[in-house]
Amino acid sequence: MATVPEARVVLLRVLLAAAAFACAAAAGAAAAAGSSSKVPAIYVFGDSTADVGTNNYLPGSAVPRANFPHNGVDFPTARPTGRFSNGYNGVDFLAMNMGFKRSPPPFLAVANKTNKQVFRGLLGVNFASAGSGVLDTTGSSIIPLSQQVEQFAAVQRNISARVSQGAAGAVLSRSLFLVSTGGNDLFAFFARNSTPSDADKRRFVANLVSLYQNHVKALYVLGARKFAVIDVPPIGCCPYPRSLHPLGACIDVLNELARGFNKGVRDAMRGLGSSCQGLKYSVGSSHAVVQSIMKHPQRLGFKDTTNACCGSGRFNGKSECTPNATLCGNRHEYLFWDLLHPTHAASKVAAAAIYNGSLHFAAPVNFRQLVEDQC
């Protein structure tokens, strides 16, 4: 969030939530608090698809960053923020649909703050780190998913220390836990073996999904109950993989890995929904959204679904979006912003489809239905 309500307002919300453990009473408490948001808070976990500036706070030259132009050229302040986008990313748009101004701030931006900043954790925190994955071995000098969960545990302890544990639990159980990760793990696997056997792919994906499930379970133990999961898009069709193909086509192996991982995550979440009392979820399919844009670009307002708007080389996919990179003028007509990430316009379309769309784009319910489920 860009603004922090006064501590007494936040305390009122928490106390109201603590007094309203029943579903209907909890809904009434939120209304009495006068909040315009549809959930008390959003907690975000993941990679560059969800990072809103975490990596700006990490040391070292190996850290993936987007804190320089042309990134952020269409952000409200026309400045780079650490988002791998010309403007907002998908998490920002999902947060807007829930009544927030944009994604909550990065954990590292508020981790060492006290007083009002502690209460800010009650309105949400973004832990996502570009370059990270489900596996601790994916990426370097970044914050893997396991460490992001540990950071949330610190936030949960801070909240419980400032208010009663019951009050904290009531707020967290109604908050949304958004997870967007997995693509970097698949890229790393492909980099090690570009022609894996079917058995290799199955083993890797099964292990990845198992670890993913363990991270979700850890968040559940810490009080999370509503999970909004975003799957992996057809990453083999991004400008960078296309630039590697002799004919400029999509890399099939990467897309097969994405489909296998996505199915595994859907099955895992279904199992957790059955075995973990009170756990509710929705899997939003960025994969289906990107496929729809690529199949019917004109219908959705896009003209270029293969080249990056900002970059260099073949498909503009050979380098990151740097100040010296080639920049397109009609950014709203591009699916891809840089070698791997969507534009502001594509993220807006994806968020709308996942939040309000049919079962094709989010299941077993869409994000709006998950958010509005008060029981």
Automatic annotation (TrEMBL):
GO molecular function: hydrolase activity, acting on ester bonds
Biological process according to GO: lipid catabolic process
Keyword entries, A-Z: Hydrolase, Lipid degradation, Lipid metabolism, Signal
Signal peptide span: 1-26
Pfam families: Lipase_GDSL
Keyword Signal attributed: yes
Chain coiled-coil ranges: none
Recorded family membership: Belongs to the 'GDSL' lipolytic enzyme family.
Family matches, as PANTHER family: GDSL LIPASE/ACYLHYDROLASE FAMILY PROTEIN (AFU_ORTHOLOGUE AFUA_4G14700), OS04G0561800 PROTEIN
The protein, known as: GDSL esterase/lipase
Organism, scientific name: Panicum miliaceum (Proso millet)
